[in-house]
């Protein structure tokens, strides 16, 4: 280093080693991936649909307009069919009931007393407008969430099929 007219010379710049360059690249990639994951989570926050039973809807005080999945048993004697494929029925968990309105074709296995999961919008005052009614191909199938809710309420029959599993084939 030489000094010119009282001005100290700047030291030569150190170059990054190969290891340091790799760490910088990896750290930069981690920041970019973290930012991308955060943006995806932020974008999906409105489209995430949660599962609730009728009692949970009342207890949590969910506001009308909330999009969710409602599950439970179709209350016996509550199915009313109208014109233009309109159907209304009550979904219950044994404690509380919620009236569901649906327009469209119901699954073939939809019956009173059977487990059902509907997806749609809460209209308030015990009313729910369903966009879809979910059913499984096996008539003894019950979604795990519905079975767990029924177990909590004490309505699960011990001899019934394990929740989420297909029934054993019938023997002759």
From TrEMBL:
Residue ranges, Extracellular side: 44-172
Topological domain ranges for the Cytoplasmic compartment: 1-22
Protein topology in the membrane: Single-pass type II membrane protein
TM segment ranges: 23-44
Assigned keywords, A-Z: Cell membrane, Cytochrome c-type biogenesis, Heme, Iron, Membrane, Metal-binding, Signal-anchor, Transmembrane, Transmembrane helix
Family: Belongs to the CcmE/CycJ family.
UniProt protein name: Cytochrome c-type biogenesis protein CcmE
């Amino acid at each position: 280093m030489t000094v010119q007219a009282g001005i100290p010379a700047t030291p030569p710049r150190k170059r990054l080693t190969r290891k340091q360059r790799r760490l910088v690249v990896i750290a930069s990639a981690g920041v970019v991936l973290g930012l991308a994951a955060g943006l995806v989570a932020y974008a999906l926050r409105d489209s995430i649909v949660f599962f609730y039973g009728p009692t949970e809807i009342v207890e949590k005080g969910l506001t009308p307009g909330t999009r969710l999945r409602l599950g439970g048993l179709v209350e016996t004697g509550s199915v009313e069919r109208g014109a233009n494929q309109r159907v209304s029925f009550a979904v219950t968990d044994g404690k509380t009931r919620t009236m569901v309105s649906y327009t469209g074709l119901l699954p073939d296995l939809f019956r009173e007393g059977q487990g059902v999961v509907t997806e749609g919008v809460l209209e308030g005052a015990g009313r729910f407008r369903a966009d879809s009614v979910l059913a499984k191909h096996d008539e003894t199938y019950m979604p795990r969430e519905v079975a767990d809710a029924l177990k909590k309420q004490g309505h699960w029959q011990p001899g019934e099929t394990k929740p989420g599993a297909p029934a054993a084939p019938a023997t002759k």
